[in-house]
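Record type: monomer structure entry
Structure origin: computed from sequence
Chain ID: A
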Amino acid sequence: MSNKRSPWLYVGCGCAAFAVLLVLAIAGAGYFGFRQVARGITDPAVRTERALALLGTDELPPGYHAQMTLSVPFIMDMAVLSDGPPVEAGNVEDLGGHERVFFFVKIKIEDKDKEEFERYLEGEEDSAKVLDQMQVDFRRSEILGRGRFDSGDQVVRYLVQKGEISERDGRVPGIFTLAAVDCPDDERMRVAAWLQRRPELAAEAPAVEAPQAGEASPQSLAGTVADEATLRDFMSYLSVCG
């Protein structure tokens, strides 16, 4: 097996945190549910079916594939998509060559953790527990912008950040868009995290300003995960309030 660690998954919190989630999922499913839990990680067809159900759609956004799904009964449901081909047997190590990775989690958390997340979304906190639970490790260096828009019956509030994504041998410059999807009459949180490798964004590069809500993105951000038009199009494929 290659010793290269995926920069996207299980690095900041470590594989141990993922293992805890996996144990909880298996325990919740019971002994005879073990194969069902495992198939959501290893079987591409099952991963896709479960991702479609969780994301409330009949088709994934163009160019994206389901790389993992995981359900921890009464705690969380998670799906991971990326713009690369389906990884073999759920080997997340192979995601290291994928440019964009999209995490989505539906989770029930304590009020204090919700408040912490809201502060993070407003740029008032440097970390949030829900990101640890999503296995996302992103070191923020700069807030590029924030906004909100309606997508069907969903209200999407987002924060665009520039920083570094962790990997075993160091950190890769990138852009990270974090979005909260607000659904009426449902206390569960729905959080999306969309990461994109941008090696050209060296630490010494000049700041790139994101547009205010409703403005067009500058050329340097157009088409990236920091572009509201791109985010709107991506979210138009999903209906996660169901």
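Annotation 1: Residues 14-29 form the longest helix (16 residues).
Annotation 2: Helices lie at 14-29, 34-42, 44-55, 111-121, 129-133, 228-235.
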